[in-house]
Design brief:
By secondary structure, the protein is α+β, with helices and mostly antiparallel strands. The chain contains three helices and 17 strands. The strands form four sheets. Strands 1, 2, 5, 6, 14, 15, 16 and 17 form an eight-stranded antiparallel sheet that branches. Strands 9-8-7-13 form a four-stranded antiparallel sheet, with no helix packed on it. The mean pLDDT is 84.
Length: 268
Amino acid sequence: MSLDTGSKMDARDEHDSGWRESAKIVVQALALAIFVRIFFYQPFNIPSGSMKETLLVGDYLFVSKLSYGYSRHSFPYGGTIFSWKMFDGRLFASQPKRGDVVVFKWPKDNSTDYIKRLVGLPGDEIQVRKGVLYINNQAVPRRPVGTFNTFENGRRYRDIQVFEETLPEGRKYNVLDMRDDPASDNTALMKVPPGHYFMMGDNRDNSSDSRISPANGGVGFVPFENLVGRAEIIFFSHAGDEPQAFSFSSPWTWPFDIRWSRFFNRVR
């Protein structure tokens, strides 16, 4: 009788031990994931079409927090704990490069995430004339490379002209230009202040960026401190703003809603 009871107790102890080990592994995995997310790579999703065709609504990507060092905006809640700032400025700072696709906090509220392409460095003079980007009074070369078929704002599919731009350092990327927009295609000459950057969306006629001041709903010049990180790689993508948009309630459509060809594409 005692041996039988002992066997049951041993089995129970073994079961409890196995449960504790499983729980320990889960906790360790979560702690590692949180550590990586805070200090190394953070996932973001694309909610708007301002970076088409580079990034599409429904893209999920990893952003490297190591690229520019850490500011308080690199951490949850803006690095603020009970109204106390952890620190100002940046730790292990590294300057971004022209052409980087950057996630940053909107200067107007220091909390909303934006993603745009960095085209202007501190001290640069930036202007857009008839849709052409000028940096320090030099036109950024661009050439037509075809069209992009897109669905935007609930409208029907349409073809939009695609241009390849080449920055002074040789960085190449594609932009969309669908129409003449007096507000965004012709701007005043703007000089980027020290410690700030000029951002533009690749979807030039559908982007609220540094061409527009924060007071008017735009981005304005972005302080170095507001940079969160550099977009690196797309790890998942679904038909976010298209008629066949991905839906958790319709699992039988998932294989057709997912953009398989975009998986693990580097952001350039």
